[in-house]
Amino acid sequence: MTTLHVPLSQTPYDIVFTAALAGEAVPGLSAQVGGKDCLLISDSTVAPLYGERAAALLQGAGAARVTTTVFPAGEASKHLGTLAELYAAAVGAGLDRGGVMVALGGGVVGDLAGFCAASYMRGIPYVQLPTTLLAQVDSAVGGKTGLDLPQGKNLVGAFHQPAQVVVDVATLCTLPPRQLACGLAEVVKYGVIMDAELFSWLEARVAPLLALDEAVYREVVYRCCALKARVVVADERELTGQRAILNYGHTFGHALEQLTGYARYTHGEAIAIGMGMAVDLARRLADSPALADLQRRQDALLAALGLPLRAAGLAPAAIQQAMRQDKKYQQGRNRLILPDRIGLVRLVKDTDEALIRAAIEGRCDP
Ligand SMILES: NC(=O)c1ccc[n+]([C@@H]2O[C@H](COP(=O)([O-])OP(=O)(O)OC[C@H]3O[C@@H](n4cnc5c(N)ncnc54)[C@H](O)[C@@H]3O)[C@@H](O)[C@H]2O)c1
Ligand SMILES: [Zn+2]
Questions:
Q1: What counts of helices (H) and strands (E) characterise the chain?
Q2: At a CB cut-off of 8 Å and minimum separation 6, what does 208 contact?
């Protein structure tokens, strides 16, 4: 059991790493749920796997009453209709301002449950119990919550920090390999943007990562949470720009996801290709031995982890056009997070559109 404190000035909280669903103690959980009515929110894949154990965990921590509500798994559920059902479940479970919501699942469950908690009765606490690698290293930490509209992804949302995050890496053993690789793309991203030592550590552990070695995941998830927490504490509401480094590879990646209707690539696959486009672009702008080294090692590590490096069947012009619709990219002029070397990236504005196009073309096959 390890605890990582996230020292936000208004809403500090702990991330507890423990085999919670196998009965290991979760320090501090009873302070969050003890004597309270809990709404346990999960999806149709995760609830049958871990729902009962999670409910038992909450009861063991002294929850007054635990009601479970489940919606169909997948991004397609991240909409207003599901939110309305969650509100109804909360009312049905008798939750008042003294209640608490608990998100058991991946990023979709976390984002929806978090937004539901942010808005229900003007805001009640929630606890995150993330079960995908992506949720454990990224979405469960940082307080961004929200849902999709027919007009676009994540168009509705709120900042609402969890009261506690409980990470049990044993849940990763049931994750399909593609979902695991999806989270690994974010893990590689952390190495490139802020931790060269982590990057080398990952390079030396490809086999145990692919074999789902629990000890390796305990360490990697802890390290990534610590990195994300550092960024979030520096820039909780994405106001100073420091949080923007998390967007490395994402402007390219979001364009790939959007163009393919969020069906062809997982998020991690899209950003793996996007990180390749970003380093290629950085080399076109100002080449250096450090960037050549980054390009070679990033490609090798992503490929070894089962992630794609190139896109196929998409027009580079359409990718560039889709990027322009990204609100983080185009604010009068374009803004991209580009690397200098492994462990260091920066925000670059006003890049020549022809160079961006060339970088995209370099990673596109007919
Ligand atoms: N709030 C943030 O800061 C933030 C950051 C990144 C991504 N997100 C959001 O997160 C979502 C993606 O999250 P995700 O990749 O976790 O997707 P997800 O929640 O859809 O989970 C992926 C799939 O894995 C299944 N699953 C989850 N845990 C499992 C387990 N332990 N064993 C077997 N199957 C399991 C789910 O049922 C689902 O089918 C997107 O909606 C994205 O916008 C939010
Ligand atoms: Zn991401």
A1: 15, 14
A2: 216
CB distance 232 to 8 below 8 Å: yes
Q: Can you say whether the dihedral through the CA atoms of 141, 143, 148, 153 is positive or negative? A: negative
Closest CA to 110 of 171, 40, 176: 40
Largest CA distance in the chain: 62
The confidence score (pLDDT) of residue 333 equals: 82
- The model's pTM: 0.97
* Cβ neighbours of residue 174 closer than 8 Å, sequence gap 6 or more: 49
Sheet containing 344-349: order of strands = 330-331, 333-341, 344-349
Cα–Cα dist 104/254, whole Å: 26
Q: Name the residues annotated as catalytic.
A: 122, 144, 186, 228, 238, 243, 247, 250, 254, 267
Residues of the chain with pLDDT under 70: 331-332
Tokens representing 130 are: 């993330």
**Calpha distance 57→54 (Å, rounded):** 5
Ligand 1, CB within 6 Å, residue ranges:
43, 45-46, 49, 73-75, 78, 105-109, 111, 131-132, 134-135, 138-139, 142, 144, 154, 171, 174-175, 179, 182
The helix or strand, by DSSP H or E, that contains position 130, with its residue range, turns out to be: strand 126-130
Could you tell me the distance, in angstroms and rounded to a whole number, from the CA of residue 361 to the centre of ligand 1? 30
